[in-house]
Amino acid sequence: MVEQHPERSRPPVWTSVALVLIDALALGGGLVLSPLSRPGFFVAFGLASSRLLGLQDPRSRPRRDTRLVASILAVAIAAAGHALVLGQGRPPVLGLLVAVLAGQIGREVLILLLAIRARPLVIQGRGPGARELARALRRPGYGSHRLVGFLASRGSCPEGVPRLEAVPEGALLLDGRAVRYRPGGGGREAYLEVGGLEFPVAEGPGDGTSRMLKRVLDLALVVASLPLSLPLFLLAWLANRLVQGAPALHSQTRVTRGERVFRIYKLRSMAITAEPDGRPVWPAAEDARITGFGRFLRRSWLDELPQLWNVLRGDLSLVGPRPERPEFVQVFKTSLPRYSIRHRSLAGITGLAQVRGFVGNTSLRKRLLSDLHYIESWSIWLDVAVLGRTLCQVIQRRQRPRFDYVPGDEGRIP
User: Fold this and answer.
1) Which of 262, 266, 269 is nearest to 283 (CA)?
2) Contacts from 196-199 at CB under 8 Å and sequence distance 24+?
3) If we measure between CA atoms, which residue out of 10, 31, 186 comes closest to residue 114?
């Protein structure tokens, strides 16, 4: 018997060509006000950087402010590339602004045209799946369906979504209670499945343009910090080696985006015999395995410095849900609903849950809610805010407490 796969909600096939034309016309419009010698170089660099940032991918559904920042970055790369290759100064700012605004306007017009042709869709029922589907469909994009409302006689609807008393003619009715989240992996993006259809999730920090923009921010900040972080790491590594002996570095397997397992690096803060049989041990509230110098490393966050290498490799982001060990992930996935959604984003050195204080001796469920809120409401500005709050906590040397709970015991996860 042939297995039936759900039908995907795809943009029209010509949408990719339209996005390339919009970029080409926008870059050309910038050149009208700011003529350049050999303008083809500027246009070519602009088209390449736009494609790299995912702006020409019709499946990408970023927030408008994310798309604007990515457009500004693409045009800036085009100007820098043109100046570098030809040895000329950058184009006037007015021309660059025209290119950015023209690209944004062109995309908005395309979204409106596609929305007119898209099949109307109505959601019936409530629950986390219905809200996630509504959020995904309300995000500006190039899909073949558009949300027109919720079929409900009472109760509240998601913000901005009208309540309907009847299904409009020609509209598709979907049961919001039957929505199932399907995690991505193997090159496939995460999606929502319901009624024999697949809908891409609302774009988060691990998808499309948002993912590429976040990666650029990570690389820029890590490279800019190397003059300070590299000498600081070498001094901390040498001190750790002299005080505690070899090895000064410690590595563990952790889980990141798409449930991919990777090896994370830290300055060793525990005794070598912390896990004598090689099996993972959940840290206790007052963990006797932590050495005296290790407590200093943890209080000062110096033990996290080697993870900048993980950021450069693409295993971690500067900001994201903290990575867990594979053995604990299996426990949490079966006990905490929606836990797998954490893996839509690269794991991070710091995160929203950490700066909110949901770490250590706090509720694991509240920590998960903070991680989900980060993914569902991500913007580049949220990353900047989390990094700023983390820096304040590092300066204050706020202690990171531990939570007295053992994954896999008979107790309920708090």
Assistant:
1) 269
2) 196/6, 196/7, 197/6, 197/7, 197/8, 197/9, 197/145, 198/6, 198/7, 198/8, 198/9, 199/9, 199/133, 199/136, 199/137, 199/143, 199/145
3) 10
Instruction: Give the predicted TM-score (pTM) of the model.
Output: 0.83
Q: What is the pLDDT of residue 158?
A: 63
Q: Which residues contact 339 (CB under 8 A, 6 or more apart)?
A: 329, 332, 333, 368
Question: Distance between CA 263 and CA 38 in Å, rounded?
Answer: 47
Q: What are phi and psi of 203, to 5 degrees?
A: -60, 130
- Provide the token pair at 391: 């820096």
- In Å, how far from its chain's centre is CA 410? 33
- Residue 273 confidence (pLDDT): 61
Residues lower than pLDDT 50 in the chain = 1-5, 402, 404, 410-411
- The answer to whether 394 and 221 are in contact (CB under 8 A) is no
CA distances 229 to 156, 316, 342, Å, are 49, 17, 28
Report cis status (omega within 30 of 0) of the bond before 247: yes
Amino acid letter, residue 405: Y
Task: Specify the length of the chain in residues.
Answer: 414
Query: What pLDDT was estimated at residue 135?
Result: 82
The structure tokens listed for 208 are 């499309």
Q: Quick one: pLDDT at residue 155? A: 58
- Could you give the CA distance from residue 199 to residue 10 in angstroms, rounded to a whole number? 8
